[in-house]
Automatic annotation (TrEMBL), chains A, B, C, D:
<protein>
    <submittedName>
        <fullName>Beta-eliminating lyase-related protein</fullName>
    </submittedName>
</protein>
<feature type="domain" description="Aromatic amino acid beta-eliminating lyase/threonine aldolase">
    <location>
        <begin position="3"/>
        <end position="288"/>
    </location>
</feature>
<keyword id="KW-0663">Pyridoxal phosphate</keyword>
<keyword id="KW-0456">Lyase</keyword>
<dbReference type="InterPro" id="IPR015421">
    <property type="entry name" value="PyrdxlP-dep_Trfase_major"/>
</dbReference>
<dbReference type="InterPro" id="IPR001597">
    <property type="entry name" value="ArAA_b-elim_lyase/Thr_aldolase"/>
</dbReference>
<dbReference type="InterPro" id="IPR015424">
    <property type="entry name" value="PyrdxlP-dep_Trfase"/>
</dbReference>
<comment type="subunit">
    <text>Homotetramer.</text>
</comment>
<comment type="similarity">
    <text>Belongs to the threonine aldolase family.</text>
</comment>
<dbReference type="GO" id="GO:0006520">
    <property type="term" value="P:amino acid metabolic process"/>
</dbReference>
<dbReference type="Pfam" id="PF01212">
    <property type="entry name" value="Beta_elim_lyase"/>
</dbReference>
<dbReference type="GO" id="GO:0016829">
    <property type="term" value="F:lyase activity"/>
</dbReference>
<dbReference type="InterPro" id="IPR015422">
    <property type="entry name" value="PyrdxlP-dep_Trfase_small"/>
</dbReference>
Length: 333, 333, 333, 333
């Protein structure tokens, strides 16, 4: 049974069905009827006018967002363990033409205004030093921690007062919203977020993420950059249709709730083995090498997260029946 | 009835079915069982060891190929009307970090050794002038003309003697092979081609092209660059499965033959209105504005290709019944 | 006797003397008293507020200017034989992060509004096609032709109506002004020029050119980019002092007049051998290989400009006595 | 009296004299007789075949070196306070097309094999993570500490065993050699250094640094990149002549010894106020704000290095008479 990665899960049936419905002739690229609905549908969800682009990966979403918010000679403050710094092979530097990631610290890969100020306050003004242009936070973080609307707003305030723009890597934004049970607007533009990488693939999608601009004027140049990066797919209707299917009936939220619930079950079983509080669909566990081996021997697959730690990811399609055996195994260690 | 673009066609049923079969859990990125088969399956097709990467667009395939063949300070000889120069929004310059496209001439967007020499022979050696590193040709060309194996080999010979590498943009490679009825190997590595962008999307695919390296050593760095460009999809099995479905039973060739046959029907009807010989699935027609309007009034959709010319693209799914009305309408102009 | 390149000439004594005077301690980079005078001194010369940066090469001046005027995904219209296209090793692509040079035609490397429209009018709007952001013209051109203020203004008008910005590569701007005997303002900002690469090195300088922004707001980002490109010299006072020495008493204009006068002498001798009218310090001559050999046998050094043509460049330090022998030799061919 | 920056010092008379001698006509760019001598003269100095390029700034030297040693998708290990990371405005990212600087720790901005391993050992192999390609160390460091040949060799060994290449930022290489009284070869290629940015400007030069490749094959591509970055000066003889003047009679070493001696005097006076041992020409001092103000009131100029610290830089032209007043003032605090 797999708890290795939420990328390993299949796409959910509604997404597959949507692909079938979109498999008709229509205009190429993003000229089709599905792509045409994105702005309106996401504007409804976010209760404000947004501009939305489909892209096939979270890395593309993040990097196109950063390129819209940071000039080639600027810097982006992010956590040392942020996905854009740690796991994207230098893609941000590629897309931005060499902007510098300015690394901040904080437990659970979570930033605070104080942590950000520790990075930007010492930067002298002048042409010798890379000046910050933007801040990027991940919600839920790479360790599954969730920023509340108030926490985002505190960072948004700092960004505003320093003339910086704020990006949210929301590869697991759905899980954060599900955890908080708040309006998506509260967690984003009302808290000062300019651009959101809204992830769907880990949450039951197949190959489409949404890049959401709360400042719609930023979208025009990004549409050009999407083409220039080879990301304007010929049959974009298939990506748009996936996103729309996810919005229908709040499928994205139901899937995320399911995954979070599974993680909560594991957390309960794990007790004080937990490295971080469980607030989304990831569970970080203290286990000895021997304990990890025993779990694997029982057929559970997961990621070794450094020495003495394991990462268990729950997917949208794992219900209590799928989770229970692992919960029991953990409890029985 | 649409003859506007082969990108407007739906994906063919075998591809959709393959997506369904691939919709199970498997390792993320390209660690899955479908991606693992690509090298072997394409090596069979090409009768030599190749390394293959899936990518979601022809632009990504072309640009990753060029980046493997040309350093940032080098140049790539291509036709002035090549897709990489004329229709990719500067993506080659983005991926290669600013390599220069060196523009050659020739009717029908087709290059010859002579046309290439006209570009590269005058380039003085020295650091002031961008030196050519590679040649890129499109087969079939943007005007539907097909290079024969001998024509490719003549360019391949030139490339070899000048220390250049040869890329083939094969967005409609299938149509070229179908027209020539030759072995894919004859048209590529045996003729000196180093890297091929093998297109499937216009030919009944959904969102996967194959980047084929006949020098497999080039693939390792390209896999890194694919990730760095945000093109390493999380659930890559869906792309790999599409490509494999296309290879099964030579579906790619059957689809291309069907499209070519439709274009041949139109060509017959067009007679001396043809701007170029019809060798693949595109038909370029001389029509007055009035004639174009009359065709459109009958429900036919197509692309105005400059003043007095129309481009009609036939897709894999248009059989004789679908083509005949337009053929008759053209004959009746 | 050298007529090979105006880069081969020594620096003039006033420049050397200025270096000596600047050889005292002062603030590093561009914080010194000489650099501080540049804006005011060039503003006087151009009769408007300008912002000026010293840079060590014309290539750096051109490329920093283009980067200020054109985004990475935009295009710059220039002549096919413009220095930025033909002789700068792809530096514009490097500095701009891959902007595309859009090549126009015209005799003597000179552009007209018509020639520029022939390039930009066919560009469809949309994300697939690189849109023009700027125009770059060279005055005097690579063939020594001079744009009049009216000719520049016609291009400036076109630029303005199309939302493009206008760069002038003035590696030999001094020679153009000397030829026209006009105010520098007439030839630049009053005619619609946004940024000027004002060359001094070929005109008796040692290692400093001036990048002049007629829109001073463009300078701030360019100062950052200058540093980022390694062009912010530690002891910038030596560059600033050279430029100021050139402005003192219009040394730049006297030097250019001297060089132009020499070229005029050669032109007289050349008669109908001239390939282009001689309007600055370059003379392009029709000579057979045998004639060229005879000139060389007499000790004259020059550049073979393709088959049957020779380029003779006159420098600021070549007076009539230095020119006369070559003029006689040409007349005697 | 200035102790603010060694960049503030004038150029030494021998350099100025050399400029005068080079002020004759000669071939442009680096085709002149002075540039032609560089390889041989530096090969003598380093007792091995080297290839040498002049460049006008340390930033250009560092960045061209890194670009020769690290691909765009690779990483360069350096100290968090290295000049390339902290003071070059993102120039390394610009020149390398976005390579990532991988930041290591260590007192006095000095790296050890252990500190480097702490950065590179945790990097997993695979396309998701930027792999190290090179290491860059600064000798003397930004805090004036000197790596001994053995210390460099230990890092060189690590580099070799990991397949990395080693760059030395030698903005104050002369001061390091003067301190160690060792052969330049010992401190560089014999210890595993591939490329050295050999600084002369802070040491009495005007506007020329030497980029030294101990693997001469790396120079050819770098010559192209130098042009492409706008750093191939038209009258390169003036840069080459400066470098040659510096080598004549070991002027570089005499200047460095003079500056080091001045710093040693200050160090003696500073006693336990020293933040770091003084091994070159920089002195880092603990001073209160009040003490700093008192020094300034006596006419001494220096750099505030964070709260409670001052940086005093001694230049090549400051003899004991110039230093003594500050030494006395420090002693008298």
């Amino acid at each position: 049974m797999r708890f290795f990665s939420d990328n390993a899960a299949p796409a959910c049936p509604e997404v597959i069905a949507a692909l079938g419905r979109a498999n008709v002739q229509d205009a190429a690229y993003d000229g089709d009827q599905w792509s045409a609905q994105l702005d309106a549908r996401f504007s409804d969800l976010f209760e404000t006018d947004v501009a939305v682009l489909w892209v096939p990966t979270g890395t593309a979403a993040n990097c196109l967002a950063l390129t819209a918010l940071c000039l080639p000679y600027g810097g982006v403050v992010c956590h040392r363990e942020a996905h854009i710094q740690a796991d994207e092979a230098g893609a941000p530097e590629f897309f931005t033409h060499g902007a510098k990631l300015l690394l901040a610290e904080g437990p659970g890969a979570k930033l605070t205004p104080q942590a950000i100020r520790a990075v930007i306050d010492p930067i002298k003004s002048g042409v010798h030093w890379v000046q910050p242009h933007a801040i990027s936070i991940t919600n839920a973080t790479e360790y599954g921690l969730v920023y509340t609307p108030a926490e985002v707003a505190a960072i948004g305030d700092l960004a505003r007062t320093r003339g910086l723009r704020l990006h949210m890597d929301g590869a697991r934004f759905a899980n954060a919203v599900a955890h908080l049970d708040c309006a998506p607007a509260e967690l984003t533009w009302r808290a000062g977020v300019t651009a959101l990488s809204f992830g769907f693939i880990k949450n039951g999608g197949m190959g489409a993420e949404a890049l959401v601009f709360f400042d719609p004027d930023l979208a025009a140049a990004t549409r050009i950059r999407r083409k220039r990066a080879g990301h304007l797919q010929s049959k974009g209707r298939f990506l748009a249709a996936q996103l729309l299917a996810m919005l229908d009936g709040d499928l994205w939220l139901r899937n995320a709730r399911a995954a979070n619930a599974g993680a909560a079950l594991l957390a309960q079983a794990a007790g004080n083995r937990l490295v971080h509080p469980v607030q989304s669909n990831g569970v970080f566990l203290r286990v000895t090498a021997d304990e990890a081996a025993r779990l694997r021997a029982q057929g559970f697959d997961f990621y070794d997260w450094g020495p003495g730690e394991a990462r268990l990811m729950v997917s949208w399609d794992q219900d209590e029946a799928a989770i229970r055996p692992l919960a029991d195994a953990i409890a029985g260690l």
